[in-house]
Amino acid sequence: MRFTRLCALAWLGFGACGGDDAVTPPDDGSIYVDGGGGDDAGAAIDAAPTGGCGTPQATGVQNGTITVAGTPRTYVLSVPAGYDPDRPTPLIFAWHGRTGTAANARAYFGIEAASGGGAIVVYPQGLPVTADPNDTGWELTANGRDIAFYDALSAQLRATYCVGAAYSMGHSFGGYMSNAVACFRGGTDPGEVRAIAPVAGGGPFGACPGDPVSATVIHGSNDTVVPIAQGEGSRDHWRSAAGCATTSTPIAPAPCVAYDGCAGGRTVRWCQHADTQFSGHGWPSFAASAAWALFQATP
Known about the structure:
The protein is of the alpha/beta class. The protein contains six helices and 14 strands. The chain has helices spanning about 100-110, 110-115, 145-160, 175-185, 230-240, 285-295, and strands at about 5, 20-25, 60-70, 70-80, 90-95, 120-125, 125-130, 135, 165-170, 195-200, 215-220, 250, 255-260, 270-275. A ten-stranded mixed β-sheet has the order 3-4-6-5-9-10-11-14-13-12, sandwiched between helices. Strands 1-2 form a two-stranded antiparallel ribbon. β9, α4 (about 175-185) and β10 (about 195-200) form a beta-alpha-beta unit. It is globular. The model is unreliable at about 1-45 (pLDDT under 50).
């Protein structure tokens, strides 16, 4: 399998493509990359209480730091104004693209507005993947620094806040990271994610030890940065893992479809769009609402 280097496009933090720069994943199946809401919006999502339940916490947006294997890791955390410490609240991990930042991701993902204050959203900050300190991204391996970051951050947030089910979404390199998190941490147990919404990403690569998850995979047919074949690979992986048929039914928001007959209460959705902004690699206007609709459907 060949993997085209994830590039960036200006302020959105995707990067700019620079030629045919490709790498081949290791033989073990892992991959090394170079270099709508309302007050009751979260009512359908619930889970067993966590250690942080019952203890009031500050709401709003805050910057945080956690040390993982001796390395300080930073993140932006958004806790909705209506957060109730006595009720489990969904937790969404939102991963930025290559050369991006947590603050950039929060600025354009739109998931806080789509959830109507129905979720806690955390935007992790990536570290450099090359010698360039601004070339931020993610390690997608099972034992890499960023799955360890996910584990530590998940544990800390669950101990601090009353957290319910957990989900993951991301753009470009962040889409690859969401697929990796689901591959290695998919499931319904504490510290696992139940559903993902990768946008313009790809993966997972190789066998996944985690349980199958629900997924909404979003990709542009005009994407010249991460070819649509990468998104189709993600779609096919999760559709097969969930035992879905290849037939589908159109759903809102357009242009999404839901595959028929998925097992275990899971749902797999595919949203192929024709946007041309940022070489077809932009963030479509329906992405946040499609992600939130999936998360609501996967309590």
